[in-house]
Amino acid sequence: MKGIHQSKTFIGAAIFFVMSIMLTSSFLTFLLLYVFYTLNIVPDLKHATMAMPFFALVVSVAIGFILSAIFSRTIFRPLQHLIKATRIVAKGDFTAKIDGSGTAGEVRELIESFNAMTKELSGIELFRNDFINTFSHEFKTPIVSIRGFAKQLKAPSATEEERNEYADIIISEAERLAKMPSNILLLSKLENQQIITDRVLYSLDEQLRSDILLLQKQWEEKNLVLSVDLENTEYCGNPELLSHVWRNLLENAVKFCPEHGNISVKCYRKEDMIHVIIENDCEALRQDTLNHIFDKFYQGDASHASEGNGLGLSLVKRIIQLCGGYITVVSDSKDGISFDIELPCTE
Fold first, then answer.
1. 100 touches 112 (CB < 8 A)
2. pTM surpassing 0.70?
3. Which residues have C-beta within 8 Å of that of residue 55, sequence separation ≥ 6?
4. Beta bridge partners of 237
5. Is the CB of residue 229 less than 8 Å from the CB of residue 191?
6. In this structure, are strands 336-344 and 225-230 parallel, antiparallel, or unpaired?
7. Less Cβ crowding at N or C end of the chain, within 10 Å?
8. What is the pLDDT of residues 118-129, one digit of tens each?
9. Gap between the Cα atoms of 31 and 50, Å rounded
10. What are the tens digits of pLDDT across the range 225-281?
């Protein structure tokens, strides 16, 4: 019904425009004939009763044509810009934008809708290009690794121990390949997303407990000591996205924590912010590693190059940003590494 109403409004504006031209031209025609008649510019005009209607028609049409040419250029100029911009978009260039200042009504709505459409198309195109370029670039590394170690397996001189080691590396790289598409796709999607959708109110501390339990087998195998201090915390957000945050940080904590090491998980509310702190024992990271720790595909420690694809912390940071929060990391030889996440309270 809204579209029908807007169509009627546009038709009404068109009728008003035509009627205005007709009335204006009629008035000017009458005024012109009155001046001719009063000043006796055309002496025989008083007696040319048969020619008067024809003369008035010609003058009225001429004046109407001139007025239409003048006003239509001003009124329909935005539509001309819209046509040109549409042709640009049709060629695959989604950067086209129309200046809607000075317009009103349906024309302004049309321009705003067009600009919103090109912005969305530009984001989709950026997402597509980024995904293709990133995936094609990162896909090569594990493939080359798998091919190289598969050739080593065929070497007659390889021992049984070496063959098992090569097989483990191939399995690890295959698992890395299996995770890569979904991680790249999710990160590319989030980078072109501006708001968090599907928000619900849920218990953040219970979510953290569940994610810790999911990794119980891994931290028990390394005989790690877990210290968990979680206050009752209600949070309104997207549980699925935040679960990516906690699992990535907890998996990293278990992965890089030494045997019999310590992991600490805290959650509490301070003023108008919710704090989640995840700490684990490990060697202090270099400053250049800390500076780039959230960059895509960055792996500061070459010895762990086969243990991930460098996307986890990039996902973590982007999700926290979309939630309107902050994440900081501190590392030293005494306390290991600590991630502090701050989320705005939504109650």
1. yes
2. no
3. 33, 48
4. 200
5. no
6. unpaired
7. N
8. 877 777 776 666
9. 19
10. 999 999 999 999 888 888 888 988 998 899 888 899 999 999 999 888 999 999 998
Distance CA 308, CA 275 (A): 27
Which residue shows structure tokens 């009728």? Answer: 15
Sorted by sequence, the CB contacts under 8 Å of residue 50 that are 6+ apart come out as none
Spatial separation of the C-alpha atoms in residues 343 and 320, rounded to whole Å: 8
Residue 32, exposed/middle/buried by CB under 10 A (0-12, 13-18, 19+)?
A: middle
DSSP count for the chain of H helices, then E strands: 10, 7
149 within 8 A of 135, measured Cβ to Cβ: no
What is the C-alpha to C-alpha distance for residues 179 and 261, in angstroms, rounded to an integer? 28
Instruction: Measure the CA–CA gap between 151 and 13, rounded to whole angstroms.
Output: 76
CA 22, CA 68: separation in Å to the nearest integer? 10
Q: How confident is the model at residue 92 (pLDDT cuts 50, 70, 90)?
A: confident
CA dihedral of residues 302, 305, 307, 308 (deg, nearest 10)? 120
- Cα–Cα distance measured from residue 120 to residue 25, given in angstroms and rounded to the nearest whole number: 45
Cβ–Cβ < 8 Å for 207, 142: no
Write out the two tokens for 89: 């978009």
Distance of CA 280 to the CA centre of its chain: 33
Amino acid occupying residue 325: G
CA distances for 82 relative to 2, 43, 77, 112, angstroms: 22, 52, 9, 11
| DSSP string across 225-273 | EEEEEE---EEEE-HHHHHHHHHHHHHHHHHHSPTT-EEEEEEEEETTE
The distance from CA 328 to its chain's CA centroid, rounded to whole angstroms, is 23
- Name the amino acid, one letter, at 64: G
How is residue 301 written in tokens? 């420690």
Q: E strands within the chain?
A: 200-203, 225-230, 234-237, 262-270, 273-280, 326-332, 336-344
Q: Please count the residues of the chain.
A: 347
Pairing state between β 225-230 and 262-270: parallel
Report the Cα 238 to chain-centroid distance in Å.
17
| 235, two tokens | 């949070």
Residue with tokens 């704090």: 275
CA distance 9 to 2: 11
